[in-house]
Structure formats: C-alpha cells, structure tokens
C-alpha cells in the first residue's frame, strides 16, 4: 500500500506547474509528472487523499499510452525511475510507481471530450435543448443511452475553476479549422479503439477527454489518457439505460457530493472514510480489469 501524498516537495527541482492532481517538474529538456493522491470533483480539489490513486492514474496512463501509440505519438518517455536523469535518482523511492518522464510540448489549450453515451452534464443539457455543445441529437434519448455515433464536445482548459463547454466553431476560430478538424478526428479514433478494447474486458467507456500538444511540428497526445479521472467507466454487466450507472471512476464521489447538496464552489467538503475507501477500491479495480495490474500484490 502506498503512502498517501496530497502534495510533493523535491528540493532542488523546479516546479513547472501544479495541476488539480499532478505536480510537474522541470527535468532538463523534459518534464517529470508526479501523480498525487488528490482528487477533484466539479473542477474543485477536495481536501482528502484517495489512497493509491496516484499510482493507479500513473499506471493506467502508461498502459494507454502504449496501447494508443500506433494511432498517434505521445509524450511518454519512461516510468522506470532507474532510467531517470541523475538529479532525480535521490527521489526515486518517492517517485517509483507514481511518476513518469515525458516530453515537454506546447499544449493546445482545450479539453478534447468524446462522448459515446449520454451522461453527466451532457444529459442535463440534452434534456433542455435536445443537443450537446450545439450538436443536435435524436429525440427521446434516455440517460445513459448509447449515442448513434461518438460526438466531440470540446471545452476550455481552466487552471482553476470550471472548464467551459465550447462549440467546435469556437475552437476553429482559436486554433484554425485544419488543426481543429484533425484533433476532432483523432480524438474520436482513439476513443473508438479504446472503447472496443475495454468492451472485451467488460467495461463501457461512456466518455473521456484527451489533451494534445505540439512536439516541434508534430501533434502528440499528452497529459493523462483514459484514466478514471478523465473518463466514465461503466461495468457492462450492470449497464441499463434510463438511469445512472455503477462506475469504476470518480462518479461515486460526484454522486456523494450531489447527495449533500454541495454548491460546487470552493472550499470543498471533506469526504467520509467509507467514500474514500470505496473510491480507492474502484480506481484499483479499473486498473486491474483494464490493464491486468494489481497494486495489492
């Protein structure tokens, strides 16, 4: 069982950025990404650590980076601490299992969301407008219904506070239609390949988000990929449209926070121990089912 880490501190290393969950450090020409056990919900960081969460996020991203590299290159270099630069070696015990060395890129500042099922905020928007981010959908869809085809619904990437849904035309305007069209197409292609694989493991990927960066003139996949933080994973055996689904992701935390009528503004409330324990178990189960990796061995 790993030590719970809410924040990191590596004297002598320069902090590049601190995200909602990951702390990123300079590592020469590259970056060191450290996954903490922080958890965010509704774009607000909660005060509690989720045991082993950082290790799960790290390992599942490594799995998917390897899985998707035939579709698009990515920023992953290694997660083997023995291959890290010399100045990182003294921290290898703290970094082992929850970090990776990645290429430094110029990040494209949008969350690239792909939805294969009607759920979450998209379900609420559909009930009001019969569309999602301006995309018209068939009438009479129920919550958790599979969409006729996966749809691309980008959002802004906010450092703090809530990401904002945007139209594809807004993204076209900001980064150019050619790049926007490519990102949409490759996001859907990655989603379809991952969803097909996950289906063979008894998991439905309801939706997910990707991020991309520029490595020279090449567009590559960056950040995390297809984790329980960035995706909705549903057990196929329990799937039934018309209601919310059991999940392997942080929907369990979202549901608890909805149940206590939190207004979704900071500061976030503390989570009870049973919710923390159950969430940790769900993350580890997702890793075991999808990647065949158990942290408890």
CATH top level assignment of the largest domain: Alpha Beta
- At CATH level 2, the architecture of the largest domain is 2-Layer Sandwich
Total helices: the number is 7
Gap between N and C termini, in Å?
A: 9 Å
Number of strands: 16
What do the pLDDT scores average to? 94
Keywords:
five-stranded antiparallel sheet, 2 domains, seven-stranded antiparallel sheet, alpha+beta, Phosphorylase Kinase, domain 1, D-amino Acid Aminotransferase, Chain A, domain 1, 297 residues, globular, 7 helices
In a nutshell, what does this entry contain?
With 297 residues, this protein is α+β, with helices and mostly antiparallel strands.
Write the layout of secondary structure elements.
Elements: E1 15-18, E2 22-27, E3 30-35, E4 40-41, E5 44-45, H1 53-68, E6 76-78, H2 92-95, E7 99-103, E8 106-107, E9 110-117, H3 120-129, E10 131-132, E11 135-136, E12 146-152, E13 155-156, H4 168-175, H5 177-200, E14 203-215, E15 218-222, E16 231-235, H6 251-259, H7 273-291
Antiparallel strand pairs: 1-2, 2-3, 3-7, 4-5, 6-7, 8-14, 9-12, 9-13, 9-14, 10-11, 14-15, 14-16
Helix pairs in contact: 1-7, 4-5
Q: How would you portray this structure in words?
A:
The structure is a single chain. By secondary structure, the chain is of the alpha+beta class. The longest helix is centred in the middle third of the chain and has 24 residues, at 177-200. Strands 8, 9, 12, 13, 14, 15 and 16 form a 7-stranded antiparallel β-sheet that branches. Strands 1-2-3-7-6 form a 5-stranded antiparallel β-sheet. A two-stranded antiparallel sheet has the order 4-5. The protein has 7 helices and 16 strands. It starts with 14 loop residues before the first strand and ends in a 6-residue tail after the last helix. Helix 1 runs parallel beside helix 7 (273-291) and helix 4 crosses helix 5 (177-200). It folds into 2 domains: 15-106, Phosphorylase Kinase, domain 1 (2-Layer Sandwich), CATH 3.30.200.20; 107-264 and 286-291, ATP-grasp fold, B domain (D-amino Acid Aminotransferase, Chain A, domain 1, 2-Layer Sandwich). Helices cover 30% and strands 25% of the residues.
């Amino acid at each position: 069982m790993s030590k719970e880490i809410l924040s990191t501190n590596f004297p002598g290393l320069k902090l590049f950025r601190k995200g909602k969950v990951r702390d990123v450090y300079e590592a020469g020409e590259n970056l060191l990404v450290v996954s903490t056990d922080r958890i965010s919900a509704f774009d607000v960081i909660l005060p509690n650590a989720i045991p082993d969460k950082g290790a799960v996020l790290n390992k599942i991203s490594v799995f998917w980076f390897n899985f998707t590299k035939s579709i698009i290159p990515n920023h992953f270099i290694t997660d083997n601490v023995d291959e890290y630069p010399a100045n990182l070696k003294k921290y290898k015990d703290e970094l082992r299992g929850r970090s990776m060395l990645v290429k430094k890129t110029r990040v494209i500042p949008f969350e690239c969301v792909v939805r294969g099922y009607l759920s979450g905020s998209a379900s609420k928007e559909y009930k009001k407008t019969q569309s999602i981010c301006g995309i018209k959908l068939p009438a009479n869809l129920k919550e958790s219904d599979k969409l006729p085809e996966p749809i691309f619904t980008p959002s802004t990437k906010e450092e703090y506070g809530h990401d904002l849904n945007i139209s594809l035309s807004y993204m076209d305007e900001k980064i150019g239609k050619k790049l926007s069209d490519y990102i949409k197409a490759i996001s859907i292609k990655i989603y379809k390949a991952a969803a097909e694989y996950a289906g063979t493991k008894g998991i439905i990927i309801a939706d997910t988000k990707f991020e991309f960066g520029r490595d020279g003139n090449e567009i590559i996949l960056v950040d995390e990929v297809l984790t329980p933080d960035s995706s909705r994973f549903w057990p196929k055996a329990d799937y039934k449209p018309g209601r919310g689904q059991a999940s392997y992701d942080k929907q369990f935390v979202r549901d608890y926070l909805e149940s206590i009528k939190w207004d979704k503004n900071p500061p976030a409330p503390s989570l009870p121990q049973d919710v923390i324990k159950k969430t940790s178990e769900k993350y580890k189960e997702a890793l075991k089912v999808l990647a065949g990796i158990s942290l408890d061995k």
